[in-house]
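Translate sequence into structure tokens.
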Amino acid sequence: MKRTTLIFLATLIVLTLAACSQSISCPPGPEAQGKDDPNVSEAILTAKVIDINGSSILLANMAEDAGPADIYRLGGDKIEVIAEDGAKPGIDALEQGMLVDVAFDGTVQESFPMGLGGIKDICIKGRGEDISGLYRTVIDDLYKVDPGLNGNISILAFDFTKASNLTEAEKTALLYLLRETYSEEIMAATYAELSEQGYIDKDKLYFEKGLLFTIEDTAMSGDQFTFNARKWRSGLGAYFFHECTAQKSEGIWTYTIGAEMIS
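Result follows.
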């Protein structure tokens, strides 16, 4: 399975690189490096800050044609950060959910996450929604409840196919962060896919080696939306956060649980 996953990711990266070469290049801005040289161009990546760990920044491409593997890891300790008012506050001004433009030389490094070459600066464009941060909290809370379901597992599978408030690139970035958080093998899969691949015994309704986490949400309306979250081990072993309400206050997303259920 790991080899298949790596091949799949490699294919996504190749496709993403092709898309990047078409979608994120743009003419130099008024302050672009090499503005007096017609042979020097600047590329812009419009992205969302998904995570900041020290000077390491994880970004998801927010272009309409961004691919599911279109995520980037940058070392921000020597990168100039420009605020909306033109000030240069440094990397400490970046927050999860922010929308930014990254000016670079057009070189995309083939890694996962990908890297960018010749980064000039990061320009803060505004505040987006940190839904991936909210769902990391939900997953961690759900993982901790009813710990008896977690016994002797080696796999955590996540089904975000009905998480409509995340882009495909954001889902990939969230899975990447989950791999950094948990010691178990992390995979993206639905119940049907796990059953087809033999991970779930369809007759006994049992995921012997792992847990399946599922999040289903409604479309965002203003600063609020609802969602359900489930941790599933078997037909008689599951825990639900049901009819949860996500609410944003002062730029921060939190949630309340409508009901907790056990099967």
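Note: The two ends are 29 Å apart (CA to CA).
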